[in-house]
Specification:
Distance between the termini: 33 Å
Oligomer: single chain
Number of domains: 1
Number of helices: 4
Shape: globular
Helix content: 10-25%
CATH architecture: 4-Layer Sandwich
Number of strands: 16
CATH topology: Purple Acid Phosphatase, chain A, domain 2
Strand content: 25-35%
Radius of gyration: 18 Å
Length: 229
């Protein structure tokens, strides 16, 4: 089972994880995009019947990753909290309980669009909160997938997914990593998030996540004028 896949990007080794995150061995860093804590709570406060337990489920998945990999830092690429309504006593209590178990872990949040609306997490969570981009090695760590003049961008925000098609009109849409020449996208880590379907354009190498594995899709052969594939 390919629970992670090692790739070389900008002459740097990154591990694409089946849990929809990236582990950077050189910096012992775990990169998480779009966890959207408290999204379900925010919807319930608006009267929408949505599932309970998403915050705890996301924290349990984080715990499992931190137990598997040697991590000195955890970096959130934006959208830590979903909305102002997400900062309920129950959600904040779960976050503080989880943080107490990882008190020695350096945590950085790069503000995303939802963070700017929801407000920074409580200072009692002991997180460093910074604007984008955060430059680290050859990468610009961002929330928005905007190009950077000197660094390869690793970003979230779009929640990419790819639709696999089979016989008999069967199809399955799965989260994916999109790796490009100067810009790459992480899938949303949060359980209760939507997705944006991407296509196998020439500029992406797509790595699909599903059933505890991550695997690359074959890249399409570009069609040149006058040449039939």
């Amino acid at each position: 089972m390919n629970s992670y896949l090692s790739i070389q990007l900008e002459q740097t080794e990154l591990w694409l994880l089946a849990e929809k995150a990236i582990y950077w061995p050189e910096h012992q860093a775990l990169l998480i995009a779009d966890i959207h804590f408290g999204k379900a709570a925010a919807y319930r406060r608006l009267g929408q019947p949505v599932p309970h337990g998403t915050t705890q489920a996301n924290l349990q998945r984080l715990d499992a990753l931190l137990a598997r990999f040697r991590c000195e830092q955890l970096i959130f690429l934006g959208d830590f909290l979903h909305a102002p309504e997400s900062q309920t006593p129950a959600v904040l209590a779960q976050l503080h309980e989880w943080r107490a178990k990882h008190s020695g872990l350096a945590i950085t949040l790069i503000r995303g669009n939802h963070d700017r609306r929801a407000g920074d997490p409580p200072t009692s969570l002991g997180m460093r909160v910074v604007p984008e981009p955060l430059l680290l090695g050859p990468f610009a760590l961002q929330h928005e997938p905007d190009p950077h003049p000197t660094h390869h961008v690793l970003a979230g925000h779009l929640h990419p997914a790819f639709r696999l098609s089979g016989k008999g009109r069967q199809s399955l849409r799965l989260p994916c990593f999109c790796i490009g020449e100067r810009l790459s996208l992480l899938p949303a880590f949060g359980d209760f998030t939507g997705t944006m379907t991407v296509t196998a354009e020439d500029r992406w190498q797509i790595y699909v996540v599903g059933d505890g594995e991550v695997w690359p899709l074959a890249r399409p052969v570009p069609v040149r004028p006058g040449i039939c594939p």
